[in-house]
Write a structure and sequence with these properties.
Elements: E1 2-8, H1 13-22, E2 29-36, H2 42-49, E3 54-56, H3 65-79, E4 83-86, H4 95-100, E5 105-109, H5 121-128, E6 132-139, E7 149-156, H6 163-186, E8 190-193, E9 196-199
Parallel strand pairs: 1-2, 1-4, 2-3, 4-5
Antiparallel strand pairs: 5-6, 6-7, 8-9
Helix pairs in contact: 1-6
Bound molecules: glycinamide ribonucleotide.
Residues 10-14, 87-88, 108-110, 171, 174 line the site of glycinamide ribonucleotide.
Length: 204
Amino acid sequence: MLKVAVLVSGRGSNLQALIDVCAKDDFPAEIVTVISNVPDVFALERAAKAGIATSVVNHKNYPDRQSFETELQVAIGDSGAELVCLAGFMRILTDGFVNQWRDRLVNIHPSLLPSFKGVHVHEQALEAGVKVSGCTVHFVVPDLDSGPIIAQETVPVLQDDDADALAARILEAEHRCYPEALRLIAEGRVVVTGNKTVIQTALA
Ligand code: GAR
């Protein structure tokens, strides 16, 4: 079983998708801790309800990113996690942190990367007039919203979409894509080569 730490900042619907898939028989990963940088978020309730250990490392309590991340590393290290999944974690991590977790730090982003990085992602997609958008699960590298792509799922952009409608459609795709990506990683089938991944075929 691959031990996973999930880092959150908010409502935690992607966390819930990961909790649900990990509860299935024979799923090859388990969530050993959920860590939030924001106190009292709904994601923490979801984790507690599932019997998962939680902790809060509130970035506001630390004078700089370095000391915040040192505490984050302690919390992750204490859990024994081998993989860190960002699930709506809204803090940018320093190069030092990212490099320490190279190829073991995963993020989900609500666009088809490399299009529409950063914030206001759905507004960017609508502004660009794209006919499809979607979500991307990728390994985290120091450059924001870059890094080897593990899985993507597309959704249509409809004529009368506003940002909320598009976000809701993409979120449903996220809830399929992230569990599937975690399965592939936990099965040892994701091989990073440069800035790409190769997904190895499942053994019969
Ligand atoms: C999700 O749409 C996720 O892709 C996005 O925040 C939302 C979190 O929702 N993450 C980012 O934009 C990261 N750059 P959730 O808390 O319900 O999972």
